[in-house]
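Encode chain A's predicted structure.
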Amino acid sequence: MRDSGIIIVTIDDYEVGNLRPLMDRVFGEDNRLGLITIVHNPRGRSDDLYFATSHEYALIYARNAKKTKTYKLRLTEEQVENFQFEDEISRYRLLPLKRTGSNSTPKERPNLFYPIYFNPQTLQLDVEKIAGFMQILPLDSDGGKRVWRWGKQTFMERVLTEIVVRGEKGSFNIFAKDRIKEGRKPKTVWSDPKYDASSHGTILLMNILGVRKSFEYPKSLYAVKDLLEVTVAERKNATILDFFAGSGTTGHAVMQFNKEDGGNRKFILCTNNEDNNGTGYKIAEDICYPRIKKVIKGYINLKGKKEKGLGGNLKYFKTDFVDAEPTDKNKIKLTKQATEMLCVKEGTFEKDLDQKNFKVFKNTDHYTGIIFDQIAIPEFKKAIQSIKAKFSVYIFSLGDDTFDEEFEDMKQKVQLSPIPEAILRVYRRIFK
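Encoded structure for chain A:
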């Protein structure tokens, strides 16, 4: 993880007590950003013995809380509609300037109890007594004394743009404009019909795949998307890794989020290919991969309605073991598998050059060069001379050479990138 990275782990009620101290130990309590309760089964589990469980948890940790940030959730349509008024500044709603609840009496906040003077003809307001102005005090319906939300100085600073007076015949109330915000700080309990894992997980998956009961307990698309909105809203080029991808909800949510805000986030999904709880469907081949492919291209749901695709691209890789025995077969296998991993890292999947000692891959604006034998560097440089694009170049080597001198004449074009140490260790062990 990067220093600014965030990890989210969802867990049920049975294991959250074990997981939280484990996460605290690994990441540190100071890096725990929150524990969210998500009501994902509002009907509750009927087979539970004492209480019908209706929720799960999302534990959120930062690699380094001082170097990361979270974001607000966008307002829902219903929340936006609450801000029914609008002036030249923004939409707003009206909230009483008079405080209620805790800390709302002169005994608790003496500086916030004062008269406001109002002229009904000119609509002028002031905190200083003016002849002909009526006095308005913060009194409740029983005549009890309350206090204003703002002190005198703040009131006068905001009176021209942030105050509205309503009433008639000598009875007036003062309201403050509560202006619409770009988002809302996420709470620790998420309860909304869109988080229902049956409606927006199980039934959604059935519509996409066209089969019933292929996967047990997929997550709600919108629960995952809102977790992304909280953690990567302004990181439009982020890479999201789900190493227990299951039905692929995370990948679907990333594409949905990108579609909504124009982001270019990438996702990497890892899952096994076992039969899913005896359903006869293999998790990777029959559920996760087909789901993502259909969401990209579009599909016909169970009601015969065509759902438009979200667009994007998809590559499918299988993991494998490379034996440590230094045979030619193992050498070839390692470099082939490593090549694909580096292409995933760079996001370059289209093969452009395929030579014995080097390969070149590309996407729309970027190239990746992978050199398997350093003696092929001159040949590689000659091959890419006419390509007018930026290159990331990886060179397999038994030593710790940087090869900066060999590419000095191409330093504006070529960025030499280190092969991940985990790959190099295996490479050196096989090739020594």
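The mean pLDDT is 92.
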